[in-house]
Each structure stands twice: as C-alpha cells, then as structure tokens.
Amino acid sequence: MQLFVTGGCVEEFVIKPLFTKGPSLGVRLLVLAVLSVALMVVDARFAFLKPFRSQLGVIVEPIYWLGNLPVTLWENTTQELSSRTELAAENEKLKTEQLLLQRRLQKLAALTEQNVRLRELLNSAALVDDDVLATELIGIDPNPFTHRILIDKGEKDGVVIGQPVLDARGLMGQVVEVMPYSARVLLLTDTNHSIPVQVNRNGLRAIASGTGNPERLELRHVADTADIKVGDLLVSSGLGQRFPSGYPVATVSEVIHDSGQPFAIVRAIPTASLNRSRYMLLVFTDTRTPEQRATESAEAEVAADQKALEEKAETAAGSNTPAPSQSTAPAPAQAPSTTAPAPVRPAQ
Amino acid sequence: MSATSPRNVWVIWVSMLFALLLSVSPLPDFMEMGRPLWLALFMTYWLLALPQRVGMLTAWCFGLLADVLNGALLGQNALILTLVTFLVLSLHQRLRMFPLSQQCIVLLMVFGLAQLVQLWLNALTGNRPPTLVFILPAVVSALLWPWVSMILRWLQQRFGVN
C-alpha cells in the first residue's frame, strides 16, 4: 500500500519534467545513436581515437581484478586447506616432471651446440635467442564468440601490438590492443585469426585459421596430394613476419580427403592449452627486416674475415718462414675460418 | 515535496558499477553463452523507479565504459544501451502498471531487439555467432528480471533512494 502511494507520488513528479523540459525522447535517441555510430566508425577506421582509448583502459585492470576476486579468494582458500597428502603427491609429480624436462634439456644443449656449429658452417649469423617477458592472465573476454584474453603487462612494460604470446607448450596468439598496464591478446582459435605454419617433418607450408572452437584449427587450401599426416607437428614458419619461426603451433588431428572438395580438409589441435594456461610469455622478436638482418650478418662476417686476415698477416710477419704459402693463403681465407685449416694440412 | 530532492543517489551509481563488474566476471563456458545483460537489467530498474535521476545520457556513458571493458568498438554497447533506454522510457507508463510476469514478456522483446542490433553490429566487425544463441542472453535476462527488480527495490527502500 505504502509502495503504491510513493510510486504514484513519484509518477506525478516524473511526468512533468519528462514532457516539459529538454528535447523529446526520439531526438535524444537520434543524437546519441548518431554519436555512437560516429564513434564506432572512427574507432574502426582511424587511429586518432586509439590513445584516448588506451588511456581509458587504465580502469580495465582493477575491474577485472575485482571481478576475479571471488575466484582468486576461493582458489587461495582451497590451496590453504588442501591436505598434506595432496601436496606431497603434487610434489612427487613435479619432481618427475622436472626430471623429464632435465633430460630433454640435456639433449637440447647438445642440439643447440650442433645447431650453432652448422650455422657457422653455413656462414649465417649467430643464433639469437628471443627475449621473453613472463605475464599472467587477468581476464577473459566476456563475449563467448571471440577468443581474447587480458594479460597483466602493457605499454609500460614495452608490449606492442602484434607481439606473439606463448605458453609452455606452444604459441597462443598475438597482442591486438595495448593499454597502459594491460593488453588484450587474440588467440589462435579466434575466427578472425590465421597463422602461417610449416609441417615440422617436411617443411610443407600452410595457413592455420581459427575456427571459434578452442580445441581446433583448420589448415586452409592444402592440396589433396600434399604430404600431411595425422600426428604431424605444425610449427610457425615466420613467413608472416609477425610470429617468430620454429615455435610449435598445433598437431594434425584429422586429414579428410573428400573427392567432392577442391582441397583436403585438415584439422589440428593447438599444442598450447589455450583455455587453461595462466602464465604466458611475451616474445620480443628482432624488429629488423630479413634484408637488414642479412646485410648486417654479412657485414659482421666481412669484419671477422678481415680480422682473421690481419691476425694471420701478423703471425706471418712474426715468424716469416714460408713466404710463398702465406701469399696464397689470403684467397681461401675469404671463406669461413673453419676451412682455413684445410690448405694448411698438405703443407705440413 | 521532498520527493524531488535527490537522496542517496550514490546507491544507483554503485549498483550500476556492480552491474558492470558482473558483466565481465568469469563464468563457466556453458553459462558464457547466456550471460545476462546485467547493465540493461539494472538500468531498466532505475529507469522505471527513478526516471528523473537516470536517463539516456547515463545509459550512454555506462555503455561506453562497457565498450572499453569488453574491447568492443567504442560506441557499440553505448548504442545498444541507449536503445534499451529509449524503449523502456517510451513504454515507461505502461510497464509500471504491468504485473511482474507481463513486464518479463515486454522486457524479453526489448532485450531481444537489443540483441538483434548487437548481432548486426557484431556481423559488421566480423565475429558473428553462427546460430540463434544470440537471443539466449535476452531470455535469461527476462527470466532474471523479477529477482533483480526485487533486490533493487529492497535496496532502494533500505537506503531511501530518491
């Protein structure tokens, strides 16, 4: 009864301002709708709204943090309350895992060394390891039809648009929006995302596109006769100049040869656990173009050869014994230093 | 006369911020499809209860905040929320007289329409849900309306918001 009376009372005061002051509802809708559409067009087509938008992004992190608070608290309490036996079991598991990883690491050391040697033989620049930055997931995009996540590193940490993101098992996606203290990452499985890949076994190139399903990628335009099998590992080929090459992307799970289709249907499962990983790595790749890299490595090579030559000349000037053999030496010395011992051996 | 002077208006803003929080809080995957339109629900209540305190501009501003939070195009959610506000305000006098069940049905229409516009805008930007599931949030929101309005009415009376 009381409620009804107050309701009626409010109504009395409401109707008057609604009709007496300010523009009508339709006009207000029109103005705001036009404003929204204009904002959308500007945001989609031009760049000058981006800084404003990234500054507004400051509010994003605290709100996502607050939204996550119940989950974080729950996880913390369950962690506090988890029994001793559980912890012991987990410890055991981690120890085994560590042992396995150690073994792989040993193998990797040998392989790296071999790789460096081979690269030296090939005259190419030294293998440079990419710089990485660890980051943590702070939120997931609420829209279920896009696969995007928020991470806790942003402009202040040097994150840039297009930067690749990895987890422990493989590539996850790339940064598409940078805010001061956070960034948005588009995952490989988003329907808008594609990544150039290579079959690790034979180097066959293809493009892996997202399907909107977090457990599936599809290879587009793979010829029916292409050598690709279930279980093949797909690694990033680095051809798009966005992702570094050689990181695992997915394993082929299905190859369907349908004579009614122009191309084979190839499906793959991402190796990264896209919907489970909490900690990720941001990769800082070399920003130089391949041409620049080639020129610079060539220059470095020339400088190294020059240095080797000078050293050799110095030693020759010091000992000054076999003059004729030294005069022929500079010609092959243009080749890498590893070939240098070859002409020396028959002389001895 | 005291009915016109603003009192405890902060409750409205806090509840709207809470709605913003709910709209990005993590949900299990199967519930993600039917995430209720919290902002629209809360906005509708305050529009029906206190139309002199909140209006289209409020809705537009909160829509912009939602855009920033969701990483959508700036103005997308703002447009949707403004549209909901327009529909609710133009149905305002009838909606207030309806019993809760009838309000639910009308709001289902309003939210369904808003979701349809949302679908069009999403299709323009490239990510489009493949099926009719885009209507699910509207259904869930309409079903939640009685509870949301009850809780917010209790809040309004508890703090004497005016």
From TrEMBL, chain B:
Membrane spanning residue stretches: 12-30, 37-66, 72-92, 104-121, 133-155
InterPro entries: Cell_shape_determining_MreD, MreD_proteobac
GO CC terms: plasma membrane
Pfam families recorded: MreD
Subcellular location: Cell inner membrane; Cell membrane
GO biological process terms on file: regulation of cell shape
Residues making up the signal peptide according to the UniProt record: none
Function field: Involved in formation of the rod shape of the cell. May also contribute to regulation of formation of penicillin-binding proteins.
Name assigned to this protein: Rod shape-determining protein MreD
Organism of this sequence: Pseudomonas marincola
